[in-house]
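Let us begin with a simple case.
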Amino acid sequence: MRLACRIVRSGSAAVLTFVIAAAPGVFGVLAVSRVAAAQSGFTVSSADIAPGKSISRDLLFNESDCKGGNRSPQIAWRGAPAQTRSFAVTIFDPDAPGRGWWHWAVAGIPADVTHLAANASASGALRKMGAVEARNDWDTEGYGGPCPPPGKPHRYILTVYALDGDDFRLRQGTPALMFEHEIRTMALATAQLTFTVGR
Protein backbone atom coordinates (compact mmCIF):
# COMPACT_ATOMS: atom_id res chain seq x y z
CA MET A 1 0.00 0.00 0.00
CA ARG A 2 1.28 3.50 -0.86
CA LEU A 3 0.15 6.80 0.66
CA ALA A 4 0.73 10.18 -0.96
CA CYS A 5 -0.35 13.61 0.19
CA ARG A 6 -0.66 16.95 -1.53
CA ILE A 7 -2.17 20.34 -0.73
CA VAL A 8 -3.81 22.42 -3.45
CA ARG A 9 -4.94 26.00 -2.88
CA SER A 10 -7.72 27.56 -4.90
CA GLY A 11 -8.63 31.09 -3.86
CA SER A 12 -9.53 30.96 -0.15
CA ALA A 13 -9.99 27.19 -0.05
CA ALA A 14 -7.40 24.59 0.76
CA VAL A 15 -7.82 21.00 -0.37
CA LEU A 16 -5.84 18.28 1.37
CA THR A 17 -5.87 15.07 -0.65
CA PHE A 18 -4.62 11.65 0.38
CA VAL A 19 -4.34 8.90 -2.23
CA ILE A 20 -4.11 5.28 -1.13
CA ALA A 21 -3.34 2.36 -3.43
CA ALA A 22 -5.38 -0.72 -2.53
CA ALA A 23 -5.45 -4.27 -3.82
CA PRO A 24 -7.92 -4.94 -6.69
CA GLY A 25 -11.20 -6.52 -5.66
CA VAL A 26 -11.02 -5.19 -2.11
CA PHE A 27 -13.44 -2.61 -0.78
CA GLY A 28 -11.47 0.32 0.52
CA VAL A 29 -11.12 4.03 0.75
CA LEU A 30 -8.99 4.74 -2.29
CA ALA A 31 -9.00 8.49 -1.79
CA VAL A 32 -10.14 10.84 0.92
CA SER A 33 -10.30 14.59 0.37
CA ARG A 34 -10.91 17.19 3.05
CA VAL A 35 -12.20 20.54 1.82
CA ALA A 36 -12.25 23.41 4.28
CA ALA A 37 -13.24 26.97 3.48
CA ALA A 38 -10.53 29.15 4.95
CA GLN A 39 -13.01 31.96 5.62
CA SER A 40 -15.20 29.99 8.02
CA GLY A 41 -12.94 27.20 9.29
CA PHE A 42 -15.89 24.81 9.13
CA THR A 43 -14.51 21.25 8.92
CA VAL A 44 -15.71 17.66 9.24
CA SER A 45 -13.84 14.53 10.32
CA SER A 46 -14.67 10.86 10.78
CA ALA A 47 -13.18 7.93 12.67
CA ASP A 48 -14.68 5.62 10.03
CA ILE A 49 -13.55 7.51 6.92
CA ALA A 50 -9.91 8.46 7.21
CA PRO A 51 -6.72 8.52 5.13
CA GLY A 52 -4.92 5.18 5.28
CA LYS A 53 -7.93 3.35 6.69
CA SER A 54 -9.90 0.86 4.58
CA ILE A 55 -13.63 1.37 4.72
CA SER A 56 -15.29 -1.11 7.06
CA ARG A 57 -17.90 -3.51 5.72
CA ASP A 58 -20.10 -2.13 8.47
CA LEU A 59 -20.63 0.96 6.29
CA LEU A 60 -21.54 -0.95 3.11
CA PHE A 61 -25.08 -1.65 1.96
CA ASN A 62 -26.48 -5.00 3.04
CA GLU A 63 -28.44 -6.14 -0.01
CA SER A 64 -27.76 -7.05 -3.64
CA ASP A 65 -24.21 -8.49 -3.76
CA CYS A 66 -22.97 -6.25 -0.93
CA LYS A 67 -23.01 -7.95 2.45
CA GLY A 68 -22.34 -5.04 4.77
CA GLY A 69 -23.73 -3.79 8.04
CA ASN A 70 -25.40 -0.69 6.57
CA ARG A 71 -24.29 1.39 9.57
CA SER A 72 -23.94 5.14 9.10
CA PRO A 73 -20.42 6.47 9.81
CA GLN A 74 -19.26 8.35 12.88
CA ILE A 75 -18.76 12.01 11.98
CA ALA A 76 -17.82 15.18 13.86
CA TRP A 77 -17.63 18.81 12.82
CA ARG A 78 -16.30 22.09 14.17
CA GLY A 79 -16.06 25.76 13.29
CA ALA A 80 -19.66 26.32 12.17
CA PRO A 81 -20.78 29.96 11.75
CA ALA A 82 -22.09 31.59 14.93
CA GLN A 83 -25.54 32.13 13.39
CA THR A 84 -26.06 28.41 12.70
CA ARG A 85 -29.51 27.25 13.83
CA SER A 86 -29.32 23.61 12.72
CA PHE A 87 -27.26 21.10 10.73
CA ALA A 88 -27.89 18.67 7.90
CA VAL A 89 -25.83 15.77 6.57
CA THR A 90 -25.86 14.09 3.15
CA ILE A 91 -23.91 11.36 1.35
CA PHE A 92 -24.11 11.43 -2.45
CA ASP A 93 -22.48 9.34 -5.20
CA PRO A 94 -21.95 11.56 -8.27
CA ASP A 95 -20.53 8.66 -10.31
CA ALA A 96 -23.71 6.58 -10.38
CA PRO A 97 -25.54 6.63 -13.74
CA GLY A 98 -28.01 9.42 -14.44
CA ARG A 99 -28.36 12.11 -11.78
CA GLY A 100 -26.20 10.29 -9.22
CA TRP A 101 -27.28 8.33 -6.15
CA TRP A 102 -28.41 9.58 -2.74
CA HIS A 103 -27.23 7.37 0.12
CA TRP A 104 -28.23 9.55 3.06
CA ALA A 105 -29.90 12.86 3.81
CA VAL A 106 -30.78 14.05 7.31
CA ALA A 107 -31.92 17.51 8.41
CA GLY A 108 -32.96 19.15 11.65
CA ILE A 109 -29.87 18.25 13.68
CA PRO A 110 -29.86 20.77 16.57
CA ALA A 111 -27.32 23.58 16.52
CA ASP A 112 -25.67 22.41 19.75
CA VAL A 113 -24.82 18.97 18.27
CA THR A 114 -21.25 18.62 16.96
CA HIS A 115 -21.05 14.90 16.18
CA LEU A 116 -23.04 11.82 15.25
CA ALA A 117 -22.08 8.44 16.65
CA ALA A 118 -21.64 5.45 14.36
CA ASN A 119 -24.98 3.90 13.37
CA ALA A 120 -26.91 7.03 14.39
CA SER A 121 -29.35 6.39 11.55
CA ALA A 122 -30.52 2.91 12.59
CA SER A 123 -30.10 3.35 16.34
CA GLY A 124 -32.86 5.94 16.66
CA ALA A 125 -30.45 8.63 17.89
CA LEU A 126 -31.41 11.04 15.12
CA ARG A 127 -35.13 10.83 15.84
CA LYS A 128 -34.49 11.36 19.55
CA MET A 129 -32.82 14.68 18.76
CA GLY A 130 -35.69 15.72 16.48
CA ALA A 131 -33.94 15.20 13.14
CA VAL A 132 -35.68 13.75 10.07
CA GLU A 133 -34.19 11.44 7.43
CA ALA A 134 -34.99 11.18 3.75
CA ARG A 135 -35.82 8.16 1.66
CA ASN A 136 -32.56 7.29 -0.07
CA ASP A 137 -32.17 5.95 -3.61
CA TRP A 138 -32.16 2.37 -2.32
CA ASP A 139 -35.83 3.22 -1.52
CA THR A 140 -35.35 2.92 2.23
CA GLU A 141 -35.51 5.56 4.95
CA GLY A 142 -32.27 6.71 6.51
CA TYR A 143 -28.78 5.57 5.64
CA GLY A 144 -28.14 3.24 2.70
CA GLY A 145 -24.45 2.42 2.35
CA PRO A 146 -22.20 2.24 -0.73
CA CYS A 147 -22.45 -0.75 -3.05
CA PRO A 148 -20.68 0.20 -6.29
CA PRO A 149 -20.63 -2.23 -9.21
CA PRO A 150 -17.34 -3.94 -10.06
CA GLY A 151 -15.09 -1.74 -12.16
CA LYS A 152 -14.22 1.90 -11.80
CA PRO A 153 -14.42 3.11 -8.17
CA HIS A 154 -17.16 5.55 -7.21
CA ARG A 155 -16.77 8.75 -5.19
CA TYR A 156 -18.99 9.35 -2.17
CA ILE A 157 -19.32 12.94 -0.95
CA LEU A 158 -20.22 13.38 2.71
CA THR A 159 -21.39 16.94 3.34
CA VAL A 160 -22.28 18.64 6.61
CA TYR A 161 -24.36 21.80 6.15
CA ALA A 162 -24.59 24.62 8.68
CA LEU A 163 -28.08 26.09 8.20
CA ASP A 164 -29.61 29.44 9.08
CA GLY A 165 -32.98 27.92 9.96
CA ASP A 166 -34.62 24.97 11.67
CA ASP A 167 -38.16 25.18 10.27
CA PHE A 168 -38.23 22.55 7.51
CA ARG A 169 -41.01 21.61 5.13
CA LEU A 170 -39.74 18.05 5.31
CA ARG A 171 -41.11 14.86 6.79
CA GLN A 172 -39.49 11.55 7.57
CA GLY A 173 -39.22 9.55 4.34
CA THR A 174 -39.41 12.50 1.93
CA PRO A 175 -37.22 11.72 -1.13
CA ALA A 176 -33.60 12.80 -0.70
CA LEU A 177 -33.69 15.06 -3.76
CA MET A 178 -36.34 17.20 -2.04
CA PHE A 179 -34.20 17.28 1.12
CA GLU A 180 -31.28 18.62 -0.89
CA HIS A 181 -33.34 21.48 -2.31
CA GLU A 182 -34.59 22.53 1.12
CA ILE A 183 -31.14 22.22 2.70
CA ARG A 184 -29.41 24.29 0.02
CA THR A 185 -31.84 27.20 0.44
CA MET A 186 -30.77 27.48 4.12
CA ALA A 187 -27.05 26.72 3.85
CA LEU A 188 -24.61 29.12 5.51
CA ALA A 189 -21.52 26.93 5.10
CA THR A 190 -20.55 23.39 4.14
CA ALA A 191 -17.79 20.97 5.11
CA GLN A 192 -17.00 17.85 3.07
CA LEU A 193 -15.19 14.54 3.08
CA THR A 194 -14.96 12.63 -0.20
CA PHE A 195 -14.16 8.94 -0.07
CA THR A 196 -13.83 6.53 -2.97
CA VAL A 197 -14.97 2.90 -2.84
CA GLY A 198 -14.24 0.30 -5.50
CA ARG A 199 -13.97 -3.44 -5.93
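The second case is a distinct protein. As before, the sequence precedes its C-alpha coordinates.
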Amino acid sequence: MPSGPLIAIGFDLDDPASRYWLDNATITLTETESTDPRVVTVDSIDATLAEIAGRCARSPLAATICDDVLRATAACTELWPGLALESLAYSTLQAGPEFERWLSERGPARTAEESAEAVLTSRSADTIEIWFNRPHRHNAFDNRTRAGLLDALTVARLDPSVRAVHLRGAGPSFCSGGDLAEFGTFVDPAASHVARTRHSPAQAIDELTRRLGRECMASVHGRVLGSGLEMASFFGTVRAHPDTVFGLPELDLGLIPGAGGTVSVTRRIGRWRTAYLVLSGRTIPAATALAWGLVDEIGE
Protein backbone atom coordinates (compact mmCIF):
# COMPACT_ATOMS: atom_id res chain seq x y z
CA MET A 1 0.00 0.00 0.00
CA PRO A 2 1.21 3.55 -0.71
CA SER A 3 2.10 5.73 2.28
CA GLY A 4 -0.51 8.25 1.17
CA PRO A 5 -2.71 9.15 -1.81
CA LEU A 6 -1.11 8.17 -5.12
CA ILE A 7 -2.03 10.47 -8.01
CA ALA A 8 -1.34 9.19 -11.52
CA ILE A 9 -1.12 11.27 -14.69
CA GLY A 10 -2.76 9.79 -17.77
CA PHE A 11 -1.38 10.68 -21.16
CA ASP A 12 -2.06 7.44 -23.07
CA LEU A 13 -4.91 5.70 -21.27
CA ASP A 14 -5.19 3.05 -23.98
CA ASP A 15 -1.64 1.82 -23.40
CA PRO A 16 -1.83 -1.62 -21.68
CA ALA A 17 0.90 -0.46 -19.33
CA SER A 18 -1.51 2.16 -17.98
CA ARG A 19 -3.91 -0.47 -16.65
CA TYR A 20 -1.97 -1.07 -13.44
CA TRP A 21 -1.91 2.61 -12.54
CA LEU A 22 -5.54 3.15 -13.49
CA ASP A 23 -6.56 0.35 -11.13
CA ASN A 24 -4.22 1.08 -8.26
CA ALA A 25 -3.79 4.84 -8.14
CA THR A 26 -5.95 6.93 -5.83
CA ILE A 27 -7.01 8.85 -8.93
CA THR A 28 -5.69 9.43 -12.44
CA LEU A 29 -5.74 12.96 -13.87
CA THR A 30 -5.84 13.75 -17.55
CA GLU A 31 -6.43 16.77 -19.76
CA THR A 32 -8.23 14.72 -22.42
CA GLU A 33 -11.88 13.70 -22.29
CA SER A 34 -12.46 10.29 -20.70
CA THR A 35 -15.49 8.34 -19.56
CA ASP A 36 -13.35 5.95 -17.51
CA PRO A 37 -14.57 6.14 -13.88
CA ARG A 38 -10.96 5.86 -12.66
CA VAL A 39 -10.09 9.10 -14.42
CA VAL A 40 -10.90 12.79 -13.91
CA THR A 41 -10.48 15.25 -16.75
CA VAL A 42 -9.11 18.62 -15.58
CA ASP A 43 -8.16 21.84 -17.35
CA SER A 44 -4.60 21.77 -15.98
CA ILE A 45 -2.86 18.75 -14.51
CA ASP A 46 -0.12 20.92 -12.98
CA ALA A 47 -2.57 23.25 -11.26
CA THR A 48 -4.71 20.38 -9.99
CA LEU A 49 -1.69 18.46 -8.67
CA ALA A 50 -0.47 21.56 -6.85
CA GLU A 51 -3.89 22.10 -5.32
CA ILE A 52 -4.23 18.48 -4.16
CA ALA A 53 -0.64 18.42 -2.86
CA GLY A 54 -1.25 21.55 -0.81
CA ARG A 55 -4.43 20.17 0.74
CA CYS A 56 -2.80 16.80 1.49
CA ALA A 57 0.20 18.56 3.04
CA ARG A 58 -2.13 20.49 5.35
CA SER A 59 -4.11 17.38 6.39
CA PRO A 60 -1.86 14.39 5.62
CA LEU A 61 -3.47 12.08 8.18
CA ALA A 62 -6.99 12.72 6.90
CA ALA A 63 -5.87 12.38 3.27
CA THR A 64 -4.14 9.06 3.93
CA ILE A 65 -7.00 7.65 5.99
CA CYS A 66 -9.47 8.76 3.34
CA ASP A 67 -7.53 6.83 0.71
CA ASP A 68 -7.43 3.74 2.96
CA VAL A 69 -11.15 3.90 3.74
CA LEU A 70 -12.19 4.40 0.11
CA ARG A 71 -10.13 1.41 -1.00
CA ALA A 72 -11.66 -0.74 1.76
CA THR A 73 -15.30 0.35 1.39
CA ALA A 74 -15.12 -0.13 -2.38
CA ALA A 75 -14.61 -3.83 -1.67
CA CYS A 76 -17.55 -4.06 0.76
CA THR A 77 -20.59 -5.84 -0.64
CA GLU A 78 -22.74 -5.05 2.42
CA LEU A 79 -23.63 -1.64 3.80
CA TRP A 80 -22.84 -2.12 7.48
CA PRO A 81 -19.10 -3.00 7.25
CA GLY A 82 -18.51 0.08 5.14
CA LEU A 83 -20.43 2.37 7.48
CA ALA A 84 -18.67 0.96 10.53
CA LEU A 85 -15.22 1.36 8.97
CA GLU A 86 -15.96 4.92 7.86
CA SER A 87 -17.27 5.88 11.29
CA LEU A 88 -14.29 4.41 13.15
CA ALA A 89 -11.93 6.30 10.87
CA TYR A 90 -13.95 9.49 11.31
CA SER A 91 -13.88 9.17 15.10
CA THR A 92 -10.13 8.60 15.00
CA LEU A 93 -9.66 11.82 13.05
CA GLN A 94 -11.99 13.71 15.42
CA ALA A 95 -9.48 12.93 18.15
CA GLY A 96 -6.50 13.88 15.97
CA PRO A 97 -4.38 17.01 15.62
CA GLU A 98 -5.74 18.13 12.24
CA PHE A 99 -9.32 18.44 13.45
CA GLU A 100 -8.09 20.04 16.67
CA ARG A 101 -6.26 22.65 14.57
CA TRP A 102 -9.43 23.40 12.61
CA LEU A 103 -11.43 23.80 15.82
CA SER A 104 -8.81 26.23 17.13
CA GLU A 105 -8.91 28.23 13.91
CA ARG A 106 -12.71 28.30 13.94
CA GLY A 107 -12.88 29.55 17.51
CA PRO A 108 -15.94 29.29 19.76
CA ALA A 109 -19.04 28.17 17.90
CA ARG A 110 -22.05 30.43 17.88
CA THR A 111 -25.50 28.89 17.92
CA ALA A 112 -28.91 30.51 17.96
CA GLU A 113 -32.27 29.29 19.18
CA GLU A 114 -34.55 28.15 16.39
CA SER A 115 -38.29 27.79 16.77
CA ALA A 116 -39.21 26.31 13.38
CA GLU A 117 -39.24 22.57 12.81
CA ALA A 118 -35.96 21.45 11.25
CA VAL A 119 -37.76 18.83 9.14
CA LEU A 120 -41.27 19.01 7.71
CA THR A 121 -43.20 15.90 6.70
CA SER A 122 -46.48 15.42 4.86
CA ARG A 123 -48.28 12.50 3.29
CA SER A 124 -50.38 12.34 0.14
CA ALA A 125 -51.91 8.93 -0.62
CA ASP A 126 -48.98 6.50 -0.60
CA THR A 127 -46.22 9.13 -0.83
CA ILE A 128 -44.29 10.70 2.05
CA GLU A 129 -42.80 14.13 1.35
CA ILE A 130 -39.89 15.25 3.56
CA TRP A 131 -38.39 18.75 3.58
CA PHE A 132 -35.23 20.01 5.23
CA ASN A 133 -36.39 23.26 6.80
CA ARG A 134 -33.41 25.40 7.80
CA PRO A 135 -33.30 27.61 4.69
CA HIS A 136 -31.44 30.43 6.48
CA ARG A 137 -28.53 28.00 7.02
CA HIS A 138 -28.73 26.35 3.59
CA ASN A 139 -30.19 23.38 5.50
CA ALA A 140 -26.96 22.67 7.33
CA PHE A 141 -27.40 19.25 8.90
CA ASP A 142 -27.62 19.46 12.70
CA ASN A 143 -28.86 17.14 15.44
CA ARG A 144 -32.42 18.45 15.17
CA THR A 145 -32.43 17.76 11.44
CA ARG A 146 -31.04 14.27 11.99
CA ALA A 147 -33.73 13.44 14.54
CA GLY A 148 -36.53 14.79 12.35
CA LEU A 149 -35.28 12.96 9.28
CA LEU A 150 -34.94 9.69 11.19
CA ASP A 151 -38.50 10.03 12.51
CA ALA A 152 -39.87 10.55 9.00
CA LEU A 153 -37.84 7.69 7.54
CA THR A 154 -38.93 5.37 10.36
CA VAL A 155 -42.58 5.99 9.51
CA ALA A 156 -41.85 5.11 5.89
CA ARG A 157 -39.90 2.00 6.84
CA LEU A 158 -42.58 0.61 9.16
CA ASP A 159 -45.61 1.36 6.97
CA PRO A 160 -45.88 -1.09 4.07
CA SER A 161 -48.52 1.11 2.41
CA VAL A 162 -45.86 3.75 1.69
CA ARG A 163 -44.88 3.39 -1.96
CA ALA A 164 -42.76 6.50 -2.45
CA VAL A 165 -40.50 8.78 -0.40
CA HIS A 166 -39.42 12.19 -1.67
CA LEU A 167 -36.78 14.34 0.10
CA ARG A 168 -36.27 18.03 -0.73
CA GLY A 169 -34.71 21.12 0.81
CA ALA A 170 -36.46 24.42 1.49
CA GLY A 171 -34.75 27.64 0.46
CA PRO A 172 -31.65 28.19 -1.68
CA SER A 173 -30.00 24.79 -1.11
CA PHE A 174 -30.86 21.15 -0.56
CA CYS A 175 -28.22 20.68 2.17
CA SER A 176 -24.86 22.40 2.55
CA GLY A 177 -23.39 19.70 4.81
CA GLY A 178 -22.96 19.34 8.55
CA ASP A 179 -23.67 22.34 10.76
CA LEU A 180 -20.16 23.51 11.66
CA ALA A 181 -21.42 25.03 14.91
CA GLU A 182 -21.97 21.52 16.25
CA PHE A 183 -18.56 20.16 15.25
CA GLY A 184 -16.35 19.40 18.21
CA THR A 185 -19.17 18.75 20.66
CA PHE A 186 -18.74 14.95 20.80
CA VAL A 187 -18.12 13.42 24.23
CA ASP A 188 -15.35 11.07 23.16
CA PRO A 189 -14.41 9.21 19.95
CA ALA A 190 -15.94 5.88 21.02
CA ALA A 191 -19.27 7.45 22.03
CA SER A 192 -19.23 9.46 18.82
CA HIS A 193 -18.86 6.27 16.77
CA VAL A 194 -21.69 4.50 18.57
CA ALA A 195 -24.02 7.49 18.20
CA ARG A 196 -23.14 7.96 14.53
CA THR A 197 -23.70 4.36 13.53
CA ARG A 198 -26.84 3.78 15.63
CA HIS A 199 -28.54 7.03 14.65
CA SER A 200 -27.56 7.39 11.03
CA PRO A 201 -30.11 8.08 8.27
CA ALA A 202 -27.91 6.12 5.86
CA GLN A 203 -29.21 2.70 6.85
CA ALA A 204 -32.84 3.80 6.75
CA ILE A 205 -32.46 5.41 3.31
CA ASP A 206 -30.62 2.37 2.00
CA GLU A 207 -33.37 0.06 3.26
CA LEU A 208 -36.07 2.21 1.67
CA THR A 209 -34.18 2.36 -1.62
CA ARG A 210 -33.94 -1.43 -1.71
CA ARG A 211 -37.70 -1.62 -1.14
CA LEU A 212 -38.94 1.29 -3.26
CA GLY A 213 -36.25 1.55 -5.92
CA ARG A 214 -36.50 4.72 -8.01
CA GLU A 215 -39.53 5.87 -6.01
CA CYS A 216 -37.16 6.65 -3.15
CA MET A 217 -36.08 10.05 -4.51
CA ALA A 218 -34.00 13.05 -3.50
CA SER A 219 -34.60 16.28 -5.43
CA VAL A 220 -31.55 18.50 -4.94
CA HIS A 221 -30.60 22.07 -5.78
CA GLY A 222 -28.18 24.77 -4.79
CA ARG A 223 -25.41 23.53 -2.53
CA VAL A 224 -25.23 19.76 -2.08
CA LEU A 225 -22.13 19.36 0.01
CA GLY A 226 -20.71 16.97 2.59
CA SER A 227 -23.42 15.04 4.40
CA GLY A 228 -26.04 16.45 2.01
CA LEU A 229 -24.37 14.71 -0.92
CA GLU A 230 -23.62 11.61 1.12
CA MET A 231 -27.26 11.08 2.12
CA ALA A 232 -28.68 11.97 -1.30
CA SER A 233 -26.44 9.38 -2.94
CA PHE A 234 -28.20 6.57 -1.04
CA PHE A 235 -31.52 7.37 -2.76
CA GLY A 236 -32.78 5.29 -5.67
CA THR A 237 -33.21 8.44 -7.77
CA VAL A 238 -31.35 11.72 -7.46
CA ARG A 239 -32.87 14.55 -9.49
CA ALA A 240 -30.75 17.70 -9.70
CA HIS A 241 -31.74 21.24 -10.61
CA PRO A 242 -29.39 22.68 -13.26
CA ASP A 243 -27.98 25.14 -10.69
CA THR A 244 -26.75 22.42 -8.32
CA VAL A 245 -23.13 22.12 -7.23
CA PHE A 246 -21.74 19.03 -5.51
CA GLY A 247 -18.72 18.55 -3.28
CA LEU A 248 -17.09 16.81 -0.33
CA PRO A 249 -15.17 19.50 1.62
CA GLU A 250 -14.42 17.52 4.80
CA LEU A 251 -10.64 17.47 4.31
CA ASP A 252 -10.62 21.20 5.13
CA LEU A 253 -11.60 20.19 8.67
CA GLY A 254 -9.03 17.40 8.93
CA LEU A 255 -11.84 14.86 8.47
CA ILE A 256 -13.27 12.49 5.87
CA PRO A 257 -16.92 12.02 4.83
CA GLY A 258 -18.78 10.71 7.87
CA ALA A 259 -22.43 10.35 6.87
CA GLY A 260 -21.94 7.23 4.76
CA GLY A 261 -20.42 8.96 1.76
CA THR A 262 -17.44 6.64 1.40
CA VAL A 263 -20.08 4.00 0.68
CA SER A 264 -22.89 5.89 -1.07
CA VAL A 265 -20.84 8.17 -3.32
CA THR A 266 -18.40 5.37 -4.12
CA ARG A 267 -21.30 3.14 -5.16
CA ARG A 268 -22.32 5.77 -7.71
CA ILE A 269 -19.04 7.05 -9.11
CA GLY A 270 -16.31 4.70 -7.87
CA ARG A 271 -13.57 5.26 -5.30
CA TRP A 272 -11.35 7.21 -7.72
CA ARG A 273 -13.70 10.11 -8.45
CA THR A 274 -14.87 10.10 -4.83
CA ALA A 275 -11.24 10.55 -3.82
CA TYR A 276 -10.94 13.42 -6.28
CA LEU A 277 -13.87 15.25 -4.69
CA VAL A 278 -12.38 14.83 -1.20
CA LEU A 279 -8.72 15.52 -1.99
CA SER A 280 -9.25 18.42 -4.38
CA GLY A 281 -12.09 20.05 -2.44
CA ARG A 282 -13.51 21.19 -5.77
CA THR A 283 -17.19 21.21 -6.57
CA ILE A 284 -18.70 19.86 -9.78
CA PRO A 285 -21.80 21.13 -11.62
CA ALA A 286 -24.94 19.16 -12.32
CA ALA A 287 -23.88 18.28 -15.87
CA THR A 288 -20.67 16.63 -14.66
CA ALA A 289 -22.55 14.88 -11.85
CA LEU A 290 -24.94 13.43 -14.44
CA ALA A 291 -22.11 12.28 -16.71
CA TRP A 292 -20.39 10.59 -13.77
CA GLY A 293 -23.59 8.92 -12.48
CA LEU A 294 -23.72 10.91 -9.26
CA VAL A 295 -27.23 12.04 -10.22
CA ASP A 296 -29.79 10.26 -12.36
CA GLU A 297 -31.54 13.19 -14.05
CA ILE A 298 -31.51 16.98 -14.35
CA GLY A 299 -34.72 18.97 -14.21
CA GLU A 300 -36.34 22.11 -12.85
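The first strand starts at residue 7 and ends at 9. Residues 7-298 form a domain with the 2-enoyl-CoA Hydratase; Chain A, domain 1 fold (CATH 3.90.226.10).
Keep these points in mind for the review questions at the end of the chapter.
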